[in-house]
Protein backbone atom coordinates (compact mmCIF):
# COMPACT_ATOMS: atom_id res chain seq x y z
CA UNK A 1 0.00 0.00 0.00
CA UNK A 2 1.55 3.23 -1.15
CA UNK A 3 0.88 5.87 1.48
CA UNK A 4 2.48 8.75 -0.42
CA UNK A 5 1.75 9.08 -4.13
CA UNK A 6 4.03 11.33 -6.19
CA UNK A 7 3.65 12.70 -9.71
CA UNK A 8 4.88 13.15 -12.34
CA UNK A 9 7.52 10.45 -12.64
CA UNK A 10 9.68 12.71 -14.81
CA UNK A 11 9.65 16.33 -15.85
CA UNK A 12 11.56 18.42 -18.36
CA UNK A 13 11.48 22.22 -18.17
CA UNK A 14 13.47 25.01 -19.73
CA UNK A 15 15.75 27.21 -17.69
CA UNK A 16 13.68 29.83 -15.88
CA UNK A 17 10.55 27.66 -15.89
CA UNK A 18 8.62 26.66 -12.75
CA UNK A 19 8.44 22.89 -12.36
CA UNK A 20 5.73 21.65 -10.02
CA UNK A 21 5.83 18.23 -8.35
CA UNK A 22 2.76 16.93 -6.56
CA UNK A 23 2.25 14.49 -3.72
CA UNK A 24 -0.85 13.06 -2.05
CA UNK A 25 -1.03 11.17 1.21
CA UNK A 26 -3.59 8.94 2.89
CA UNK A 27 -2.60 8.75 6.55
CA UNK A 28 -4.22 11.64 8.46
CA UNK A 29 -1.72 11.12 11.30
CA UNK A 30 1.09 12.46 9.09
CA UNK A 31 2.23 15.84 10.36
CA UNK A 32 5.65 16.34 8.80
CA UNK A 33 6.16 16.70 5.05
CA UNK A 34 9.72 17.08 3.75
CA UNK A 35 11.14 17.19 0.25
CA UNK A 36 14.48 15.58 -0.49
CA UNK A 37 16.79 16.27 -3.44
CA UNK A 38 19.08 13.59 -4.82
CA UNK A 39 21.88 13.98 -7.35
CA UNK A 40 23.24 10.94 -9.22
CA UNK A 41 25.54 8.82 -7.07
CA UNK A 42 24.66 10.70 -3.90
CA UNK A 43 22.33 10.18 -1.00
CA UNK A 44 19.15 12.28 -0.71
CA UNK A 45 19.47 15.59 1.11
CA UNK A 46 16.74 17.57 2.83
CA UNK A 47 15.60 20.50 0.69
CA UNK A 48 12.63 21.96 2.55
CA UNK A 49 9.95 20.74 4.92
CA UNK A 50 6.52 21.86 6.13
CA UNK A 51 4.14 21.06 8.97
CA UNK A 52 0.35 21.28 8.57
CA UNK A 53 -0.06 24.44 10.64
CA UNK A 54 0.92 26.52 7.59
CA UNK A 55 -0.25 26.37 3.97
CA UNK A 56 2.96 27.55 2.34
CA UNK A 57 6.67 27.71 3.06
CA UNK A 58 9.40 29.33 1.00
CA UNK A 59 13.15 28.83 1.16
CA UNK A 60 14.99 30.64 -1.57
CA UNK A 61 13.63 29.46 -4.93
CA UNK A 62 11.84 26.46 -3.41
CA UNK A 63 8.23 26.63 -2.18
CA UNK A 64 6.02 24.00 -0.59
CA UNK A 65 2.26 24.44 -0.89
CA UNK A 66 0.17 22.38 1.50
CA UNK A 67 -3.56 21.58 1.34
CA UNK A 68 -4.60 19.74 4.49
CA UNK A 69 -8.23 19.14 3.47
CA UNK A 70 -7.18 17.59 0.16
CA UNK A 71 -4.25 15.76 1.76
CA UNK A 72 -1.94 17.08 -0.91
CA UNK A 73 1.30 19.03 -1.01
CA UNK A 74 3.51 20.21 -3.81
CA UNK A 75 6.99 21.56 -4.54
CA UNK A 76 7.48 24.57 -6.80
CA UNK A 77 10.93 25.57 -8.05
CA UNK A 78 11.06 29.20 -9.13
CA UNK A 79 13.46 30.33 -11.88
CA UNK A 80 14.73 26.78 -12.35
CA UNK A 81 18.38 26.29 -13.28
CA UNK A 82 20.27 23.40 -14.91
CA UNK A 83 21.87 22.78 -11.51
CA UNK A 84 18.41 21.89 -10.18
CA UNK A 85 18.39 18.79 -12.41
CA UNK A 86 18.02 15.96 -9.90
CA UNK A 87 15.52 13.49 -8.50
CA UNK A 88 13.08 14.90 -5.98
CA UNK A 89 11.30 12.84 -3.35
CA UNK A 90 8.39 13.91 -1.20
CA UNK A 91 7.92 12.17 2.12
CA UNK A 92 5.68 12.14 5.16
CA UNK A 93 5.75 10.96 8.76
CA UNK A 94 3.83 11.16 12.00
CA UNK A 95 5.31 12.67 15.16
CA UNK A 96 7.35 10.65 17.62
CA UNK A 97 10.91 9.53 18.16
CA UNK A 98 10.15 6.35 16.26
CA UNK A 99 8.56 8.28 13.42
CA UNK A 100 9.19 6.54 10.15
CA UNK A 101 9.53 8.58 7.00
CA UNK A 102 7.50 7.23 4.08
CA UNK A 103 8.77 8.36 0.68
CA UNK A 104 7.07 8.95 -2.63
CA UNK A 105 8.42 7.23 -5.73
CA UNK A 106 10.44 10.22 -6.92
CA UNK A 107 10.39 12.71 -9.80
CA UNK A 108 13.32 13.01 -12.13
CA UNK A 109 13.66 16.67 -13.11
CA UNK A 110 15.71 17.88 -16.04
CA UNK A 111 16.21 21.60 -16.58
CA UNK A 112 17.41 22.40 -20.09
CA UNK A 113 19.20 25.52 -21.33
CA UNK B 1 32.29 15.98 10.91
CA UNK B 2 32.07 13.10 8.44
CA UNK B 3 28.28 12.75 8.86
CA UNK B 4 27.00 9.31 7.83
CA UNK B 5 29.62 6.96 6.39
CA UNK B 6 28.70 3.82 4.48
CA UNK B 7 30.99 1.05 3.30
CA UNK B 8 31.47 -0.49 0.82
CA UNK B 9 30.32 1.74 -2.05
CA UNK B 10 29.93 -1.20 -4.42
CA UNK B 11 29.51 -4.92 -3.85
CA UNK B 12 28.78 -7.93 -6.02
CA UNK B 13 27.52 -11.11 -4.36
CA UNK B 14 26.52 -14.53 -5.53
CA UNK B 15 23.12 -15.90 -4.55
CA UNK B 16 23.29 -17.41 -1.08
CA UNK B 17 26.29 -15.43 0.12
CA UNK B 18 26.05 -13.30 3.24
CA UNK B 19 27.54 -9.91 3.91
CA UNK B 20 27.33 -6.88 6.16
CA UNK B 21 26.85 -3.31 5.01
CA UNK B 22 28.50 -0.93 7.43
CA UNK B 23 27.09 2.40 8.59
CA UNK B 24 28.57 4.85 11.07
CA UNK B 25 27.56 8.37 12.12
CA UNK B 26 29.42 10.93 14.19
CA UNK B 27 26.53 13.28 14.99
CA UNK B 28 25.40 11.47 18.15
CA UNK B 29 21.97 10.81 16.65
CA UNK B 30 19.85 8.27 18.50
CA UNK B 31 17.74 7.38 15.45
CA UNK B 32 19.28 5.44 12.56
CA UNK B 33 17.69 3.62 9.65
CA UNK B 34 18.31 1.65 6.50
CA UNK B 35 16.48 2.24 3.21
CA UNK B 36 16.68 0.52 -0.13
CA UNK B 37 16.16 2.44 -3.36
CA UNK B 38 14.80 0.73 -6.44
CA UNK B 39 13.78 2.34 -9.76
CA UNK B 40 10.19 3.54 -9.69
CA UNK B 41 9.73 2.58 -6.03
CA UNK B 42 11.38 5.39 -4.16
CA UNK B 43 13.05 4.67 -0.84
CA UNK B 44 11.63 1.91 1.30
CA UNK B 45 12.45 1.47 4.97
CA UNK B 46 14.11 -1.83 5.89
CA UNK B 47 14.93 -1.50 9.60
CA UNK B 48 15.37 1.32 12.05
CA UNK B 49 16.71 1.94 15.53
CA UNK B 50 15.77 4.57 18.11
CA UNK B 51 18.85 3.96 20.23
CA UNK B 52 21.52 1.47 21.22
CA UNK B 53 20.02 -1.95 21.87
CA UNK B 54 16.69 -1.09 20.22
CA UNK B 55 15.75 -2.06 16.66
CA UNK B 56 12.50 -2.53 14.79
CA UNK B 57 11.26 -3.55 11.37
CA UNK B 58 10.33 -1.21 8.60
CA UNK B 59 8.34 -1.81 5.43
CA UNK B 60 10.59 -4.45 3.79
CA UNK B 61 12.57 -6.28 6.53
CA UNK B 62 12.61 -9.84 5.17
CA UNK B 63 16.09 -11.17 4.39
CA UNK B 64 17.84 -8.49 6.46
CA UNK B 65 19.09 -8.36 10.01
CA UNK B 66 20.31 -5.42 12.11
CA UNK B 67 21.80 -4.77 15.51
CA UNK B 68 22.71 -1.58 17.38
CA UNK B 69 25.39 -2.08 19.99
CA UNK B 70 26.60 1.54 19.96
CA UNK B 71 25.08 4.92 19.14
CA UNK B 72 27.51 5.35 16.25
CA UNK B 73 27.14 2.09 14.31
CA UNK B 74 24.18 0.41 12.64
CA UNK B 75 25.23 -2.49 10.38
CA UNK B 76 22.84 -4.21 7.97
CA UNK B 77 23.31 -7.93 7.42
CA UNK B 78 22.13 -9.89 4.42
CA UNK B 79 21.72 -13.43 5.66
CA UNK B 80 21.50 -15.28 2.31
CA UNK B 81 21.60 -12.90 -0.63
CA UNK B 82 18.96 -13.18 -3.36
CA UNK B 83 18.75 -11.43 -6.76
CA UNK B 84 15.70 -9.52 -5.44
CA UNK B 85 18.06 -7.77 -3.02
CA UNK B 86 19.92 -6.11 -5.87
CA UNK B 87 19.45 -2.45 -4.99
CA UNK B 88 21.07 0.72 -3.71
CA UNK B 89 21.13 0.81 0.07
CA UNK B 90 21.15 4.00 2.09
CA UNK B 91 21.80 4.43 5.76
CA UNK B 92 20.43 7.53 7.48
CA UNK B 93 20.48 9.10 10.91
CA UNK B 94 18.03 11.66 12.22
CA UNK B 95 18.11 14.76 14.35
CA UNK B 96 15.49 14.43 17.07
CA UNK B 97 14.65 18.12 17.24
CA UNK B 98 13.68 18.84 13.63
CA UNK B 99 13.23 15.36 12.15
CA UNK B 100 15.94 15.98 9.53
CA UNK B 101 17.37 12.80 8.01
CA UNK B 102 21.05 12.71 7.05
CA UNK B 103 21.83 10.10 4.41
CA UNK B 104 25.06 8.33 3.60
CA UNK B 105 26.30 8.11 0.01
CA UNK B 106 24.89 4.63 -0.52
CA UNK B 107 26.02 1.09 -1.30
CA UNK B 108 25.24 -0.31 -4.73
CA UNK B 109 24.69 -4.05 -4.33
CA UNK B 110 24.32 -6.58 -7.12
CA UNK B 111 23.34 -10.17 -6.40
CA UNK B 112 23.99 -12.56 -9.26
Helix/strand structural class of chain A:
mainly beta
Shape of chain B: globular
Average residue-wise pLDDT of chain B: 95
Report the count of strand segments of chain A.
11
Q: Strand tally of chain B, please?
A: 11
Q: Report how far apart the termini of chain B are.
A: 36 Å
Rg over C-alpha atoms of chain A, rounded to the nearest angstrom: 14 Å
Number of separate helices of chain B: 0
**Could you say which structural class the secondary elements and strand pairing of chain B correspond to?**
mainly beta
Quote the beta fraction of chain A. Answer: over 45%
Shape of chain A: globular
Low-confidence runs of at least 5 consecutive residues of chain A: none
Give me the strand/helix succession of chain B. Answer: EEEEEEEEEEE
Strand content of chain B is over 45%
Main beta-sheet annotation of chain B? 7 strands, mixed
Largest sheet of chain A: 6 strands, mixed
Helix content of chain A: under 10%
Mean pLDDT of chain A: 93
Low-confidence stretches of chain B: none
Q: Helix-strand pattern of chain A, N to C?
A: EEEEEEEEEEE
Distance between the termini of chain A: 38 Å
Explain what the structure shows.
The complex is a heterodimer of chains A (113) and B (112). In chain A, a hairpin with a 4-residue loop joins strand 7 and strand 8. Chain A contains no helices and eleven strands. Chain A has 113 residues and is mainly β. In chain A, strands 2, 4, 5, 9, 10 and 11 form a six-stranded mixed sheet that branches. Chain A has a five-stranded antiparallel sheet with strand order 1-3-8-7-6, with no helix packed on it. The radius of gyration of chain A is 14 Å and the shape is globular. Helix content of chain A is 0%, strand content 51%. In chain B, the strands form two sheets. In chain B, strands 2, 4, 5, 6, 9, 10 and 11 form a seven-stranded mixed sheet that branches. Chain B contains no helices and eleven strands. The N and C termini of chain B lie far apart (36 Å). Chain B is an all-beta fold. Chains A and B meet through strand 5 and strand 10 of A and strand 4 and strand 5 of B.
Amino acid sequence: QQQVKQSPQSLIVQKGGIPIINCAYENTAFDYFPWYQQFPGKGPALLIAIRPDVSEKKEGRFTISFNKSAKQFSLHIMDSQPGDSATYFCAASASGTASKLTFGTGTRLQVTL
Amino acid sequence: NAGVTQTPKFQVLKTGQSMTLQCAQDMNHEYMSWYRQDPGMGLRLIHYSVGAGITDQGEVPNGYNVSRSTTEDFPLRLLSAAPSQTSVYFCASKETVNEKLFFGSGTQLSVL
